[in-house]
Amino acid sequence: MSNPVPKLCFHKSSLRFYIWIDGRRVYLGKGKSADKIPSAVHRKYKRAIAKWAVEEPVTPEILPDDLTILELVDSFLDWAEKEYPESNEADCLELSTRTLCNLFGETAANKFGPLKLIAYQQALVDEGKLTRQGINKRVNHIRRIFNWAVSREVVPFVLAHSLTTVRPLRRGRTSAPEAREIPPVPDEVVKATLPHLSPPIAAMVSVQRLTGMRPGEVCRLTMDQMDRSNPECWIYDPNQHKTAWRGKIRRIVLDKASIEFLQPWLRDDGKPLFSPLERVAALNAEKRTRRRTRVQPSQMSRAKESPRKRAGAAYTPDSYGNCIKKVCETHRIPHWSPNQLRKANGQEVRARFDLSHAQAVLGHSDARTTATHYAREDLKKATRVAEVMAKESVGWRPASSGIALPGETD
User: Fold this and answer.
1) Opening angle at CA 310, ends 308 and 296, nearest 5
2) What angle, rounded to 10 degrees, do the helices at 39-52 and 89-104 form?
3) Where in the chain is the domain with CATH 1.10.443.10?
């Protein structure tokens, strides 16, 4: 008699779906109730069952012509998880497909057109949860799905091309709110935060502010990716970064100050320099040394067998940002995020050098990205110009044009 197929279960207290495989509980994601299974959980469940049956899930190279939107999205997300294994791109795409599947899940993929995409766009506006920029990004994700479907010969090229005729939401012409502009974090706020951070997080913040690297790059910092041939200037060449999948090379220069912040954390075993797992172990060891009473045998280790949260070998951008957020909330410091350190570095480099230098430090392929989002023109410079021009223009009269200044008469 064959073993029954593992059943999808729901844990009410933690709001997580799970299955039992080989005597252990395998979590598949969160949801609101057992009756409403998220599509991401459903996909993970199917994949887990396929592995349990010793059958690898294989996406067919030629998908059926009568594919529904729901089936198309399922196939596309399976492909995306394999295509972007080391980023959250697949998760972002999955978020964009939820409203699409709710509206048109049973619709044939080859019957989807511009009017349905407009309806999807308007549904996102009506939900009121996303900014105008966020809605435009999700609409582009839907276009990506149908472009992928064209490559699989599921839908005709004309259908995918017709979706490009749907115009993005324009500023001031939609009820969707504008995204809030996130400025660079002032150095005064960073200096006020540093004394309250744990030593590894404080070092990460200092290095990121000095180099302008991304949060994920400082979290994954290892010495085997570091060129130390020049003791005055190290070169960090991360294996994983935002544009690695495009074949881009990212090199980050660390000056003497950055090297000095890294000195207490250097290690040559190839592991991340900053490890929350080791930080927790060090804190527990410190607590034991400070203990005044004798430790009972039953209290030698109180670690849970299966805790809901485990400290990882390296910080993630989320855990790194959460450490800063908690400190800011506890000590009533204006909240800021690690990405604002990168913006502060880009702003400073542009002010002291120029846009091309800021682009080189931040690692952008297009200078417009640097100028628009990270290192905008310094308003202080423009204000200074206006002040100087005003002083030097006293007594100026546009005599050659024959036009009198306001309040003057001929």
Assistant:
1) 90
2) 110
3) 187-287+312-374
Which CATH superfamily groups domain 59-171?
A: Tyrosine recombinase, N-terminal domain (1.10.150.130)
Cα distances (Å, whole numbers) of residue 401 to 95, 217, 390, 397, 405: 61, 58, 20, 9, 11
d(CA 147, CA 240): 27
Residue ranges, comma separated, of all CATH 1.10.150.130 domains in the chain are: 59-171
Token pair 């998908």 in the structure block, residue: 63
Q: Which of 180, 181, 183 is nearest to 341 (CA)?
A: 183
Longest dimension (CA), the chain: 108
Token pair 């899940």: residue: 105
User: pTM for this one?
Assistant: 0.68
- φ, ψ of residue 246 to 5 degrees: the values are -90, 0
Distance between terminal CA atoms of the chain?
Answer: 108
d(CA 325, CA 313): 21
Distance CA 334, CA 357 (A): 30
Class of domain 187-287+312-374: mainly alpha
pLDDT tens for the 410 residues of the chain, in order = 456 788 888 877 667 788 887 766 777 877 888 888 887 788 778 777 777 776 444 444 445 567 889 888 888 988 888 888 767 788 889 999 999 999 998 899 999 999 999 999 999 999 999 999 999 999 999 999 999 999 988 889 999 999 999 999 999 999 999 988 888 999 999 999 999 999 999 999 999 999 999 999 999 899 988 888 888 889 988 877 666 666 677 888 888 999 999 999 998 888 889 888 888 777 777 777 777 777 666 665 666 666 566 777 788 888 999 999 999 999 999 999 999 999 999 988 888 888 888 888 888 878 778 777 776 666 666 666 666 766 665 444 454 444 444 455 54
Tokens of 368: 């417009």
